Every structure is written in structure tokens, then in C-alpha cells.
Amino acid sequence: MKDHVLSNGYTFMAITTGHYGSWAKATDPITAARNAANANGYGSGGRIAVQVFFGKSGDMQCGLTGGVFWNEAPPIPIGLFLVSKTGAIKPMPKGAFNSDHESHDEWMSSMIVQIESHRADAEADAEA
């Protein structure tokens, strides 16, 4: 068993946002978020946005330009977090980086719609 995989085959995957981000998997969301942030670096502001998902380890991957992709079982969005170099992790406040930056709640709503839409499309394709 890999050290990031739970006994049920699931894992937490964290992906930093922005250009040329990093990702990490772990058995808990906090470790995944910290590891992704540490691999990415924190920039001049000492903080970074990290999105966290829960899903089947072998079925869920980070895309070449970020974002989460899966084969069969859609991942569960856990949240969008502001991770600081000092170790603090908190739900993303609205406008933390600029006025257009989503909050944790907005990101959750958006991700749920995207995952549900993808799942509905896959079911429609399977029925055709």
C-alpha cells in the first residue's frame, strides 16, 4: 500500500492554483494541502491557494494545467484553502488575491456543478 492511500483505496489530493502549480496526495486533507503548498512555494506574499479533493487514488489525477481529472468515480471536493508559509490553513476568503478570486463557498458550489455536469454527460454517453 502506498503511504498516501487509505485502506479503502481512497486518498486526499491537493492542487495549488495558478500557473505551473504542484499537487500532493496524503491520507488526510491537511497534509495533502501543506505538501502541495511546500512543493509549489508560497511566492512573495507567503501564501497560496490550494484546492483539495477526496477520491479513489488510482482514478484521480492532476491535469497538465491543474485541475482534477478522473476516470470513473468522481472526486468529492473538500474545499479551497488559503495556506500560508507560517502553517496556517483556512477556508479561502473572497478576494484574498484579487477581487475576482473565489471564496471557499463559491469554489465548492462551482466544483459541485462541474462534477455533476461531467457525471451527467458520462451517463448520457453510456446510454447512447
Structure commentary:
The chain has one domain (10-127). A hairpin with a 5-residue loop joins strand 4 (60-62) and strand 5. With 128 residues, the protein is α+β, with helices and mostly antiparallel strands. A five-stranded antiparallel β-sheet has the order 2-1-3-6-7, with helices on both faces. A two-stranded antiparallel ribbon has the order 4-5. The chain has helices spanning 29-40, 104-127, and strands spanning 10-16, 23-26, 47-56, 60-62, 68-70, 76-84, 89-91.
What features would you highlight for this structure?
128 residues; alpha+beta; five-stranded antiparallel beta sheet; two-stranded antiparallel sheet; 2 helices; 7 strands; 30% strand; globular
Short description:
This protein has one domain.
How does the SSE layout of this entry go?
Layout: E1 10-16, E2 23-26, H1 29-40, E3 47-56, E4 60-62, E5 68-70, E6 76-84, E7 89-91, H2 104-127
Antiparallel strand pairs: 1-2, 1-3, 3-6, 4-5, 6-7
